[in-house]
Automatic annotation (TrEMBL):
It comes from Eucalyptus globulus. The lineage of its organism: Eukaryota, Viridiplantae, Streptophyta, Embryophyta, Tracheophyta. Pfam families: TRM5-TYW2_MTfase, TYW2_N_2. Residues 355-617 form the SAM-dependent methyltransferase TRM5/TYW2-type domain. Residues 233-246 have a biased composition (Basic and acidic residues). This is tRNA (guanine(37)-N1)-methyltransferase.
Amino acid sequence: MIKSPFPNPSTLLRTTTAATAEMVAKFLLKPYHRLSFPLSPSTFRLTPHSKPSSVLFTITSRAAATDITQLHAAAAPLPYGPSLQKGTIPSQSFKDSDQEEACEDSLDEASFARVFGISALRVPAKDCFALESRLRGHLLNWPRVCNVARVPGDEVEDDVAELIGSRNESRESGEGEECEKLGRRIYGRAEGDGERLSGVLYRERLAETFNSRGFVNFRNLAKISRPKKGKKREVNEKRDGNREGSVKRNKFSVVEVIEDEEREGEDLRGLLGDEFKGRRWRGSTRLLLLDDRYAEKCLEDLPEAVKAVFKEGERDGTSSIELVSCILTLFYDYWSMNEILEALLPKGMIVPSSFETVGHIAHLNLREEHLPYKKLIAKVVLDKNKPKIQTVVNKIDMIHNDYRTMQLEVLAGNHSLVTTVVENGLRFSIDLATVYWNSRLATERQRLLSGFTRNDVVCDVFCGVGPIAISAAKIVKRVYANDLNPQAVEYLEKNIVLNKLDRKIQVFNMDGRRFIKSLFASEKALSITQVVMNLPNDAAEYLDAFRGIYGDKPKGMIHALPVIHVYGFSKAGDPEFDFHERIRIALSEVAVQVEMRRVRLVAPGKWMLCAMFTLPRIVAFARTTAFKDQI
């Protein structure tokens, strides 16, 4: 076979068309041409006429939608998968994300909807799961989006499916009378034949003709249909949500099939609904969503695995599998908190993605740059963490008072700061406005409790609402809990009763130094084995109260000295050495063996540490002249 030296006319046409389109695009996209709509190579549609030499170019502008991918064409390549920087924004929902609009308190959730054009395989429902497992690598595989989508209205009972099958068979065999009779039954006109309507068709006709007088014959229906007073608001919300143009908030995504209006087929709207106008029904089907890189591609451009599935589905010249075009819409509920905040905040600003959870309260520590957007940030945090989070607060000032309470500003949700926290299987009722709580120390508290035994007696000098004291009461023999804040002591007593540990805990409300001296001056001092001082800002300064606590007791009476766990902050370059020096100075002792560990980094260059040591005998039995006078 001799190959022709001249190029194929169709190949020449495609080459000429592509080259000309590129030339026109470069010409129109010069800087001195100001256009009111975004342009890209996909914006031009080439319509060749019958003559190869003449080509008509038409420039189309998508006025009803904005392509986000075109807006970010000059930026770095976008990652694989769904993104707010990809897809198309539906009409009437696009807003410029400048700083002035971002500072508003209201959040337009509709502006975060994105539309993606994809391709899908319409397959029989009975084969969808087998084909999904087979074509797993070629499907969409997006997070929180199922690869299998249902076709709206394409769910038919088996009895109705048999009727449709017999209808098609009778039409092909020429049995016109039975087919006509069956058609009258399907479309609700069977009463003329003397046959009763089916229950489904009778119910549909009754619903269409039902009015206020119909309740006369259905007394019980009138009682059931009357809405309750408490649910009137829910009924109004559902009615408003079904209006045209409203976004359904109960879904992450919606898949719609782009049907061909010129498709030939029988009209099945009377049986299956308006979705089946002009489409021949071949049974219940499902949609297998293909990867987005196969969008707008024909069957020849699909992978061989997909082509093999088409060949296997061919029967009598027709295939039970169909390639269709779909529209995938991802709503505001689909996107994660970080993706929404990254789109809202100015470019380059750090996204406040972490927060402390205290019961139903989200505790933020926003930076100065985040304050103009604090309402928007709180709204997103609340929406993306419901129903667990119901209140979002921000700390507006550092802790300066003796009670260690924080000044909080409620940014979103309800204004109740009273909540219940579950930790180590125990429940703690707290009020963040009047007491101190830090959920980030839960791991440290668990580590501390793991060192206690059932023979220990614990003295908690700064107990707060009792996260350590109450948890230790389930392990040890006895607990003495103290705090200076009367509100914290009130919640401590409530939590003790709430967890049924009132027999093992004794509560005090006094200054920490006075509590140490009075407790160790009593007979209880002989049984105390563990002392916890969890007040990192000032706990080391209270260690001088241990000097001479056994000074008036014989040394033979003391069998074991208590182990002290003291917490503190340090900003020094060597935080362990710095904290050790402060402990040594407070005890007025040169040689103190301390086991030190870093708990966590609370701020840049600021460490929280825990020091554990046995009280030195020379400190405990030191003679102090003013000891009895202070008590």
